[in-house]
Amino acid sequence: MATAPSAVPSTAPSVRAHAGPHRWTGxxxxxxxxxxxxxxxxxxxxxxxxxxxxxxxxxxxVLRDALAKxxxxxxxxxxxxxxxxxxxxxxxxxxxxxxxxxxxxxxxLGARTGRPVLRIGRIGGQYAKPRxxxxxxxxxxxxxxxxxxxxxxxxxxxxxxxxxxxxMLWAYRAASRVLAQVDGHRSARAAAxxxxxxxxxxxGPWSSHEALVVDYEAGLLREDPRLGTYLASTHLxxxxxxxxxxxxxxxxxxxxxxxxxxxxxxxxxxxxALRRLCAILDxxxxxxxxxxxxxxxxxxxxxxxxxLVAAVRDAGHPVVWLCDxxxxxxxxxxxxxxxxHLDTLVEEVRIFLRTLAEQGVPAGGVHLxxxxxxxxxxxxxxxTSERELTRRYTTLCDPRLSPEQGLRLIDSCF
Length: 414
Description:
alpha/beta; 15% strand
């Protein structure tokens, strides 16, 4: 996509736009691109605010009901997909492979546990990535960091790395193509699940992404007469480790939504601060409202996680706890590539499951960065050593599991 779309798709459901996105875009926000003085910014925001919703309010009600069953320990969740989605991989083949991967993970988890498994993809909006540093080294040059296709390009030139607000429209257009395929797959899955005797809310797949770029998300706030304000960019938005401060714009925006919402929780989280965060995001203590995604790292999980789980439990929040074993276990291989070791990921999931059982809290499932294709970005299974990483290392950002490695993880932990 070299130019911004001249029009937005006319087939998405039309719901009245939110009256005041500037309530959020007028405030400083961590990780938001520095592009509000760009000459294309206002036109991009106007077009985004006028665009049709990408998800429907009734879908959010169904997903909340399904997540409530997970919170109560009746169902499980597999949330999985790309680290960073590409604008250039929105076609049926690429998206079909990711949805098939998600189905395979859910099928394996259901077979191991005998419980229904809710499918949630990191899909249809995972176009922005948080970065700890504004610049990065590429060969002998220092360049602005790649922030995901919503913000800039991965091409290693200073011009390509400049934030461009028109990319918000390109992200919308890509997401609309992807979510149309997700909707079709969900309809087909519903028919198959019904034929297999499943009763209850849809098992998905549903969409999710990190609500990182405040401007993009604010432009897709919509109003429903029954639910109130909801985020029309995705079914399940989450906030990350770098934006979960209870006073942040990100937290306050998600607190205003009718969507179920999620939050990553790392080993530096303070139990008291986490209780405050839960009080903001889940004030009514409603099952299915809040998903907490633990990303501790194997070496810190056993120490950090029990106190956090106990704090949330004792405060009466019936949250869905998921384990993200990916983000705390990234290492650099001898050849300079980032990677993750499957045996380390398995150990963290096992610690998570043991900790939740000891605290008397249902374990909700796993959150994985995984590809639909047999990539060689993590060590384990068919990738027997770091020397094999270069065979098919295609991620835009962090290393992903292959479908085979994801299945090995599920079989090893449940």
